[in-house]
Each structure stands twice: as C-alpha cells, then as structure tokens.
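Table S2 (text version). Query chain:
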Amino acid sequence: MVIASIDVQDGRVVQLRQGSDLVLQRDNAVELAEEFDRYGEVAVIDLDAAMGKGNNAELIKGLLRKAECRVGGGIRTPEQAQELISLGARKIIIGSMAFRDPAKKGTGKPGGEFTLNKYFLETLVKKIGRERVIIAVDAKKTENGEAPGYEITVDGWKTSTSLPLIETAAEVSPYASELLFTCVDREGTMEGMDLEPVKQLCDVAGENCRITAAGGVSTLEEIEALAAMGCDVQLGMGLYTGKINLADAFIRSLNWKKTEGLLPVIAQGSDGQVLMTGFSDREAAAESFKRGNLCFHSRTRNKLWMKGESSGHTLKLLRLRADCDRDALLAVVEPAGPVCHTGAWSCFGVDRRFTWDFLQSIIADRFRNPLPGSYTATLDDRLVREKIMEEAEELCTAKTHDEKVWEAADLIFFATALMTREGVTAAEVLDELDRRHKK
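Corresponding structure-token output:
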C-alpha cells in the first residue's frame, strides 16, 4: 500500500526536512485528502501536537470526514486515541508515549525514563484494539563504537532515547498491527531510503505486524523494492515536489508477478454492495486513475475497456485498494446505472439495495424535479415537521408488530425529508451514530 502523508503545522500542510527546516507549505489540506484517498489511506500527522506547541484538532476532524486516515502526532492518552477513532480515524499512530514511562523517573529524564511504556500500550490496545494501533519507530543513525545502528527518537525527532531500533521494535511489535519506520536522517532529503534497517525490521516484526517505511523515498524503483519485501511506503517530499506520481507509485506497489500481470478486481458500491468483478493489468489501473472511471482488461478481447463506454453505465472511481497480499483490488465506485449487461443492478443477480442513502437520493430528486401529483414534492418546512410529530406519536401508540413497522417507516421517511431540506445527509447521521458506538 502507498500512503500519502499530510503533515499539519499552524493549520497548514507542510513538508519539513529532517523535522525542522521548512521546505514547502500549502493551504489545501481538504483537497489533498480527497485526492490522496483514491490511492490509499492518508497519514495525517499533527506536528504541533507532536512538539507540544498546540494542536490542529479542528482541521483534522474535517479531514477525517473526507478520507480514510491514520492519525498521529502528540497522542498521549488512550482516551485521545479512542476519541479519534470515534471521529473516523482508521488507525492511530503512537510515537513518544510508547517509549517513555512517566512512572519511572530514576534516570532524571524529563517526563520519565526511556523504556517501553507497557502500561500505556496495554491500556491502548484494550481501548481501541491492536488492529488499530501503529507504533512509530522513528530513528536516527548512530555510531556506537564497533556496532553502528539506529536509535529511536521522540518529541518530533528532537530527543534521542538511546533505545536501539531493532531490539525495541521486536519488543513493541506485539502491541501493534503495524510499525512505521521513518529514517529521520533521510526524511525530506530525497536521497533515497536506507533499506537495510527495513529488512531487519521485517525479520523481527513477525507475520502479524506490517512495516511501513518512510524517509528519503524518491523513486518508483525504491517503492517496488519495498513492496517486494512486503512493506508499505509512506510518501511525503517525493510526492509534493512531483518527483513521484501517486498513481504510478500505487501501481508499482502491487504484486503483478504473482498473478502474471493480471489482478482480479471487485467493484463495490459505496453502500457495500458488490456489483461486478473483472481483471486489471497495469494499463487498466493507470487508465482508471486517469479517467476517473473504472477500467478493466478484457481477457476475451485482450484489450483495455472502460465499463460503460458503450452503455453509459460507467463506474465512477472513488477509491482503489489492494488486499493484504497486493494481488487483488477492491474498487469502491459510484455506478451511473445498472451494472450487469442483463440490465440488473448487480452482476450477482440482485436489485439495487434499498439503503437510507438511496431513500434520500429519491427524496432529493423529488424536491429538485417535482412530478405532477408527487406527495413528496409538497413537503414544505411546516408540513414535514407536522408529519414527523404525528408519525412519532403514532409509532409510540402502535399496538401490533405490523403497525410498528408501518409507523416506523413513515417516521423515517418524513425525518429523511426534513434532513434533506436542511442539508443533512444520511451518511452524516450514520457517522455520528458510529462515533457514539466507538466511544
């Protein structure tokens, strides 16, 4: 997987060389998140919080509504992590708190002794689950006599812990589903990635803990080499300077050799309904990103084809994701009409799923394009509110099971009509319910 990084400082997207020298800054964090989300999860790092200089909480909340994000920077309590998960973060990146135990101050270090903070990590895993935890093992190269290596750094890469990278990674990996290794010496330099410590991390992390590498990656060849090692790659400077194209990076990270150049593709609606399957080669993947509509490789005709190019029933590409082995693709799409050549909504012989989103789309269309005799089109602000109160009372007084189903359907319909008039989407309400569930 290729992960694009959005580092935030003073409300702006920035790129720093080795964590200190400002190289560039932008004001379009939301637009970047929406674009990056097409290719993979987005790493959102709050540099101000990491350095103890404030935070960018409101901006990050907005990004979580636009993209699948993993969030890090200054997360110091399990409760903070849980709140971010409830707001929509896919995973949480933990740095300094994993390697500083405030209960141990015998060494005189400010904030606690540098050691594995097992209590914090155990509590964090209980709160949000190991599968949502990423531990950042950011490290700088050091010369220790006859044993040169890397040592963990914390506090926004400002403080060395003297903890050896490989041994510490082995100790911390049981608490995380992923380790994020940033080669601090190379970060932002565009000098290339040091692959040796990455190989060692792969050896000690185990099968259940992935490695994501960052720091100095500047070529597609490096991305391919890291993918061959089973690693994901996080891109920053190479992406923002235009040296690396994100679509090209995504394609190079896939396991084409295993499947002889063709990967199976599952097309899925944003509501989760499976629509069709097909195959993609490198050309089809590149064209999908370029056109914004899902393309396939036709095995019968041995050529590229875009779904809907003759019928008009295209599949707008929202995001493309690789599976854990990078040898299959999931395309989340927005269909322009029935997907199957038979005229069915899905190639798997089922009608379009009647979801809350679909209901709202019907209501919105009735408001925009009122048909003669349409009752929905007559629901102005006063009438829809009266109907909600009326249906709520009828649901509360319903006696039989069938009556309760009927009245509940009425109440949901009118509530959705009011939401639509007020610009509130069903997805926003479901997101809020999901947030409460995860708290």
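Notes on Table S2: The chain has a mean pLDDT of 91. The first strand starts at residue 2 and ends at 9.
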